[in-house]
TrEMBL record:
Chain sites annotated for binding Ca(2+) 1: D232, G237, D239, S241, E253
UniProt KW Ligase keyword: no
Top EC class, one word: oxidoreductase
Reaction(s) catalysed by this chain's protein: 2 a phenolic donor + H2O2 = 2 a phenolic radical donor + 2 H2O
Biological processes, Gene Ontology terms: hydrogen peroxide catabolic process; response to oxidative stress
Start and end residues of each Plant heme peroxidase family profile domain: 28-192, 194-496
Protein name from the UniProt record: peroxidase
Entry binding sites for Ca(2+) 2: T359, D412, T415, D420
Catalytic residues (positions): H231
List of residues binding substrate: P328
UniProt similarity note: Belongs to the peroxidase family. Ascorbate peroxidase subfamily.
EC number: 1.11.1.7
GO cellular component, one term: extracellular region
Length: 497
């Protein structure tokens, strides 16, 4: 779902849910709450916001932020607008607000006009919620209906303002937990915040432009970056640990069996990191860099787009053991692979969709030898075309181990440089190059996976949608330790000194 549509949905739900939970109302918010008591309220606020944004377009962001900070503390009840008094400590001087929030005079201005039209009727909480919607529209954003009927609180909470609001330096896992505490999902989190907005606003453009050059130089680089991201996330979470070189004090993951002859792309990451460091030194983590680059790599070879949540920290550790045990291998059985995905919080549908990235992948002889000298003829039903394909594979990869072990061929021999659903058609024909892929369709344990493979072969849109969803899900496998003592590496290969 595109970002502006997510914002539409999030904001339309955001206001009603928070205020209804905390305002003390005994009835749901409605669109016509002021129909008889102040029928002009929406027009009055709209006209005044038009003047306010015309005076300074930045006022739109000021009002939206004020509404956000209000809703995260006690709900959308206008508690953020209360000044300190002898008997009440407000929220304005709480650390997330004091150097961030403005717009109080804007609210006063609109309130004065409304009070002249409908004295004592429209709450400040409703005023702020409607104004945030109008502010969004006035700078090119989407429209949504605003349910009204909130009441203004008689209290404020400095403590909640301090603890509940996300901060610019906060880690992703902490931010997500704060959104969850408010009943908001990861998708809502992505829609409502931009982690690098103030510290490195060009990060997405820099990575995209560099990835365009990298994939243009060699389309195979797209698959290399996607695989690197996958192998990172399956050991300790998406923390950049796969990028660490071995040192005297640290054993990395690069030489683990699933990585040593399979994973490349380290120089690609170095190249992008160098660009980002020249723009925003010490700000963007290698883990975020790799996650964004994997998305861009997918798009650049014809695959789907998805929004990438950011805010990961780089780990100071790696795990050779987890890289060895957690990552699926090309010869592994279906039930074992499903188990490994489940252990990462990923479903069977995620597994089948993420395996679809092999549509642009390459495989080395050592990883498909057992397949082409094993049951390939059985699964392909000795079709003449399949026999020709098998013969060509055996030319690339002789039966005996040796110099040819590193010889490569495309996993999808039909459209090897295009991200599409061709790999699933290959499996239907029984021509899957990797045993682990073909097992999804032909294994006796593959009742569910067989159905999904057929679905994605028939419906490329369904495949793209699930792949996008699964990549976000995989990208959210986090290393909780890295958010306690993680860092932003200056060089992705080494822990900072």
């Amino acid at each position: 779902m595109k970002l502006f549509l997510v914002i539409f949905i999030v904001t339309a739900i955001f206001g009603p849910c928070f205020s209804f939970d905390v305002s003390g109302n005994d009835f749901p918010l409605t669109l016509d709450y002021y129909k008889s008591t102040c029928p002009t309220v929406f027009d009055v606020i709209k006209k005044e916001m038009e003047c306010i944004v015309k005076e300074d377009p930045r006022n739109a962001a000021i009002i939206i932020r004020l509404h956000f900070h209000d809703c995260f503390v006690q709900g959308c009840d206008a508690s953020v607008l209360l000044d300190d008094t002898e008997s009440l400590q407000g929220e304005k001087t709480a650390s997330p607000n004091i150097n961030s929030l403005r717009g109080y005079k804007i609210v006063d201005r609109i309130k004065n006009i409304i009070e002249s039209e409908c004295p004592g009727v429209v709450s400040c909480a409703d005023l702020l919620t409607i104004s945030a919607r109008d502010a969004t529209i006035l700078v090119g954003g989407p429209y949504w209906d605003v349910p009204v009927g909130r009441k203004d609180s008689k209290t404020a909470s400095y403590a909640l303002a301090t603890s509940s609001l996300p901060t610019p330096e906060e880690g992703l896992i902490s931010i997500i937990s704060k959104f969850y505490a408010q009943g908001l999902s990861v998708e809502d989190t992505v829609a409502l915040i931009d982690y690098y907005k103030s510290t490195c606003p060009t990060v997405f453009d820099v990575i995209k432009q560099e990835m365009e050059r990298i994939v243009n130089e060699d389309p195979r680089n797209a698959a290399i970056v996607i695989r690197l991201h996958f192998h990172d996330c399956f050991a300790q979470g998406c923390d950049g640990s796969v990028l660490l070189d071995d040192t005297r004090s640290l054993q990395g993951e690069k030489k683990a069996a699933p990585n040593i002859h399979s994973v490349r792309g380290y120089k690609i990451v170095d190249r992008i990191k160098k660009k980002i460091e020249s723009e925003c030194p010490g700000v963007v983590s290698c883990a975020d860099l790799l996650t964004i680059a994997a998305r861009d790599a997918t798009v650049l070879v014809g695959g789907p787009y998805w929004d990438v949540p950011v805010g990961r920290k780089d780990s100071k550790t790696a795990s050779y053991e987890l890289a060895t045990s957690n990552l699926p291998t090309p010869e592994e059985g279906l039930t074992s692979i499903i188990s490994k995905f489940y252990s990462q919080g990923l479903s069977v549908a995620d597994m089948v969709a993420l395996s679809g990235a092999h549509t642009i992948g390459m495989a080395q002889c050592r990883n498909f030898r057992s397949r082409i000298y094993g049951d390939f003829k059985v699964t392909s039903a000795t079709d003449p075309v399949s026999e020709t394909y098998l013969a060509s594979l055996r030319e690339i990869c002789p039966a005996s181990s040796g110099r040819a072990d590193g010889n490569e061929t495309a996993i999808d021999n039909v459209t090897p440089n295009l991200f599409d659903n061709s790999i699933y058609h290959t499996l239907l024909r029984g021509e899957g190059l990797l045993s682990s892929d073909q097992e999804m369709y032909t294994s006796m344990f593959g009742i569910q996976t067989r159905r999904i493979v057929k679905k994605y072969a028939e419906d490329p849109v369904a495949f793209f949608e699930q792949f996008s969803e699964s990549m976000v899900k995989m990208g959210n496998i986090l290393n909780s330790d890295s958010f306690v003592d993680g860092e932003v590496r200056r060089n992705c290969r080494f822990v900072n000194k």
